[in-house]
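Quick one, probably user error.
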């Protein structure tokens, strides 16, 4: 049976992840986040696309984005394979983790529960990355079907709205997948101590918050000076 301190640590982890996801994706405050500010530049990109006769540059940009997403998707598959392999060597893995500094003794059932949490996190990340990749494929098709320069303003505006929204959706899914990596790193520390787990989870949220809402990159996107 899971101990009270482990239950508290797991609840704190869930609260931090879900709370931060709500802050960035659903709340009014999330409109000030880095990726929300980037959406304006996605629209500008698509407006420039319809003015160009040659769209090789746009295709290359989408391919670069897809390569980044593909890298994470492939890496996640390798991580999942490793975690599933570890699941088959439970006793030996428990002995190794028990030798870690500050590690506390645990039962096989609790150890496997922690491992299944990690597997679930990276499965979630894999689905986010692959969905992002599919949406970037849709974006590349839309760019291929973009109206030629000189088309009607209405047609151009429909393309810009449609393509920029798909680009933002794909980017948002990619960020959610990367966020899973951050929280996956925090979840690894649960094998050591639940207090360490809570501390690292809090640190992850602090790092994510700073990068999304107070980083020099956000200031540059806003056209401001260094933060």
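Nope, works fine. Designed sequence:
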């Amino acid at each position: 049976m899971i101990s009270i301190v482990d239950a508290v640590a797991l609840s704190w982890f869930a609260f931090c992840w879900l709370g931060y996801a709500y802050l960035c994706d659903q709340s009014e405050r999330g409109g000030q986040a880095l990726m929300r500010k980037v959406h304006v530049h996605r629209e500008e990109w698509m407006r420039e696309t319809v003015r160009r006769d040659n769209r090789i540059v746009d295709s290359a940009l989408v391919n670069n984005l897809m390569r980044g997403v593909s890298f994470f998707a492939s890496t996640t598959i390798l991580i999942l394979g490793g975690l599933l392999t570890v699941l088959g060597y439970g006793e030996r893995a428990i002995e190794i983790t028990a030798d870690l500094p500050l590690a506390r003794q645990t039962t096989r059932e609790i150890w496997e529960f922690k491992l299944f949490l990690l597997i679930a996190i990276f499965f979630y990340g894999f689905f986010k990355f692959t969905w992002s990749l599919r949406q970037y494929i849709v974006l590349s098709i839309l760019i291929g079907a973009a109206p030629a320069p000189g088309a009607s303003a209405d047609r151009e505006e429909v393309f810009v709205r449609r393509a920029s929204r798909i680009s933002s959706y794909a980017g948002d899914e990619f960020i959610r997948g990367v966020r899973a990596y951050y929280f996956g790193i925090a979840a690894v520390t649960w094998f050591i101590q639940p207090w360490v787990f809570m501390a690292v989870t809090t640190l992850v949220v602090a790092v994510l918050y700073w990068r999304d809402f107070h980083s020099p990159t956000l200031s540059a996107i806003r056209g401001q000076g260094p933060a």
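Residues 108-144 form the longest helix (37 residues).
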